[in-house]
Amino acid sequence: MEIIRDKHFEGERPLFETHNVRLEQVTIGDGESAIKECSNIEAEDCRFWGKYPFWHVHGFKISNCHFDVGARSALWYSDNLDMRHTVIDAPKMFREMHDIYLEDVVINDADETFWRCRDIKGRDLTLHEGIYPFMFCENVDIDGLRSDSKYVFQYCKHVVLNRADIVTKDSFWECEDITISNSVLDGEYLAWHSKNVRLVNCHLRGEQLLCYADHLVLENCTFDKDCDRVFEYSDVHADIRGHIENIKNPRSGHIIAGSIGSVTIDKNIKAPADCVIQTVEPSL
User: Residue 91's pLDDT is what?
Assistant: First the structure.
């Protein structure tokens, strides 16, 4: 593998159609599409601030690098990426990609990031700001996610999250086959119009959570005191530890809670309208 060390590149496509190259302490300055139509690329301790540096790249590793604000839309139409210990300040990253591994990556402007990507695995990923990260993604498995971006995970399929701390609203809308464990989900309108969502050992905050959902399962979950109008028009099987303030018009299923502030069942409930709701004393 050729090694390029301590170099600065700028302009249009300076490393176009480069293959089997390792970049060390390289900077990519003003210009566009620096590393395009390339394969088997490694970048270690590099800095990028020109536009669109990695497009149509097949097989690449990025470690201890920094993407400046100017390096927007840096990773598109590429595959087989391993990225570790990297900070990204630019928006609109990761589009139409597959086979991505991320570890200890911080994205400080997650605006429109991870769109139409599949086969994403990660550990200790942080997302700040921006809207609609993880739109239309499939096969996502992340252990350790912190996000305060808006409208995270919409129209996604086959997502597994562990140790997530997500502050947003309208998250997991119209998603399918979602499992979230040991996590905190904070925001209104969680998982509306979703299918096959399973929450395990999670704490939930926000209003009108988990409505219009099919095959919704909660195991050993807790709710914040201000949650109300939960499970409206949902098919739900829920084991709730402690108190839930208000349940409204669940369509079907079985809900067990330590205590319930109120249950709203009115003329607007949808068939089959046979959800069993009960309280149980906590076991000693």
Answer: 96
